[in-house]
Amino acid sequence: MPPAPRLPRLLLSSLMLCAPGLAVAQEAGALPVTVVRADFAPVTISATLTGVTEAKDSADMAFRDGGRIVSLAVDVGDRVTEGQELGRIDDRQAQEALREAQAQLRAAEANRDRAEQEYTRQGAMYDRGVTTGATLDSARESFRTAVSSVEQARASVEQAQITLDETRLTAPFDGTVTARNADPGQIVGAATAVLELAADRGVVALFYTPEGYVDEAVHARDMRFSLLDEPALPITGTVSEISPMIDPTNGSVAVKVALDAGTAPIPLGAAISGTVLFDIPDTAALPWEALTSDESGPAVWVMGADGTASLTPVTVERYQTDRVLISDGVTEGAEVVVKGAHLVFPGRALRVVEGE
Length: 356
Hints:
The chain is an alpha+beta fold. It has four domains: 32-42 and 282-352, conserved putative lor/sdh protein from methanococcus maripaludis s2 fold (Beta Barrel), CATH 2.40.420; 48-57 and 200-281, Beta Barrel (Elongation Factor Tu (Ef-tu), domain 3), CATH 2.40.30; 62-89 and 168-199, CATH 2.40.50.100; 91-166, Helix Hairpins. The chain has helices at 7-28, 92-128, 133-165, 214-219, and strands at 31-33, 35-37, 40-55, 58-62, 67-72, 79-80, 85-89, 168-170, 175-180, 187-188, 193-199, 203-209, 222-227, 236-246, 253-260, 271-287, 292-294, 297-303, 309-313, 315-319, 323-328, 335-337, 350-352. The strands form six sheets. Strands 3, 12, 13, 14, 15, 16, 20 and 21 form an eight-stranded antiparallel β-sheet that branches. It has a four-stranded antiparallel β-sheet with strand order 4-11-9-6, with no helix packed on it. A hairpin with a 2-residue loop joins β17 (292-294) and β18 (297-303). α2 (92-128) runs antiparallel to α3 (133-165). The longest helix is centred in the first third of the chain and has 37 residues, at 92-128.
C-alpha cells in the first residue's frame, strides 16, 4: 500500500504555525480611532454682537410748506432746548396772508357792529309800532350773518398765524442735532427733513441678531456691554424693543437695548459690543469631527463592546465653532468615535488609540 500524501499534513502544520500571526494581522488591520465619552451637563453659552448707539427718541425736522431757507441757526453736534428756534424760511407770503386775514377780520367786525346797531334800532321801532315784523326779522338775519362772518374771519387769522409760525423750526424737546441736510439759500420742498434731532431721553444700542438668539437675548441671565473706543466705561442694559419682522436685507432681527452708564454720557453713533450669557439644559458636547449623517439627519458612530460601531441618529441642540451640543440620541457614558469617524462603516473592526 503506497504511503499517504505528505502535502496536506505540511499545509495543516503551516496553518497551525501561522495562526498567531493571522490574529496579529487581523488586529493590525483594524481601523485606529479615537473616542470621546458622552457626558451630559448644563452648558453656558455666550454670544457677542457688535452694534451702534443711537438716541432712544429722535425726530426729523421739516418746514410744513417748504420754501427758501433764510437761516439755520444750528449745526451737527449742537445742543438745543425745547422751543429754541432752529431755522427759518422766507415768510413774506405768510406775512402778507396774515395781514390780509387781519384786514378781513376788521372789516367783518365793523360790518357786525353796524348790523347789530341796525337790529337794535329796528327792535326799538317795532316796540313803538313804527316798523313791521318782517323788517325786524331781516335785521336780525343780517346781524346773525355778520356774526358768522366774523367767526370765519377770525379762524382765517388763526390759520394764517399758524402758517406764519410754521415758517420757523423750533425744537420739540431738549436734545442734540445729529444731522443737517440743508443750508441757507436752499429751496426745500414741503416736509423735507432739513435737521435731525436726538432727544435727551436715553441712549439705546441697536443690534442685528440671528433669529435663533432672540429668545436668549430676552431671557439672558447676564448681559455685558462695552464701547469699542471706551472699553473701561461700565455700561448695563436691558432689552427694550425687538422687531417683529426679519430684516430682508440681512436676514436678522433688530434688537434695541436701553443703556445705562450712570452719570457718564454715552456718545451717539459709537460702536458697542454686547455679550449675553444664557444656559442650555443638559447636553453632550462633542467635537465637530464626531458628527456625520444618515438618511434622517445628523448622526454619530457609537462604539460597541464587540469592537465595531453603530451609526446612531442624534438631535443637535446647537452648533458651535469647535463643537456640537447633542441633546438626544446617545446615552450617558456612550463612547462616540471622533478621529477616523469618516472611515467607519457597519461591521468594520475598530481599534481605540490614544489621541485628541
